[in-house]
């Protein structure tokens, strides 16, 4: 049975478009997370630490060892 070569062009286009879309979505999600992978399966403790990091640094993924809230934040 011969290979239908004319079907390879649309197949290649579909694979390329899904790949580009997935890559752009990954870049968008990482850019919103300070270039770190997204968090999954968060527990209550993780949520409390995220809230703490947000209060200390102004971003959910920012971390600092200084326990004092800076005066220039709006929170």
Write up what this structure looks like.
With 75 residues, this protein is an all-alpha fold. It has a domain at 29-58. It has 2 helices and no strands. It has helices at 8-32, 44-57. The model has no long low-confidence stretch (mean pLDDT 86).
Helices and strands in order, then pairings?
Blueprint: H1 8-32, H2 44-57
Instruction: Report the structural category.
Output: mainly alpha
- What's the pLDDT, averaged over the residues? 86
Beta-strand segment tally? 0
Question: How would you classify the quaternary structure?
Answer: single chain
Keywords:
single chain; 75 residues; mainly alpha; 2 helices
In brief:
52% of the residues lie in helices and 0% in strands. By secondary structure, the chain is an all-alpha fold.
């Amino acid at each position: 049975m011969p290979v239908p070569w004319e079907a390879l062009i649309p197949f290649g286009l579909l694979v390329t478009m899904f790949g580009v879309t997935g890559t752009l979505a990954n870049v968008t999600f990482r850019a919103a997370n300070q270039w770190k992978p997204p968090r999954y399966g968060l527990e209550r403790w993780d949520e409390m630490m995220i809230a703490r990091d947000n209060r200390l640094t102004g971003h959910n993924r920012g971390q600092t060892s200084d326990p004092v809230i800076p005066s220039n934040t709006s929170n």
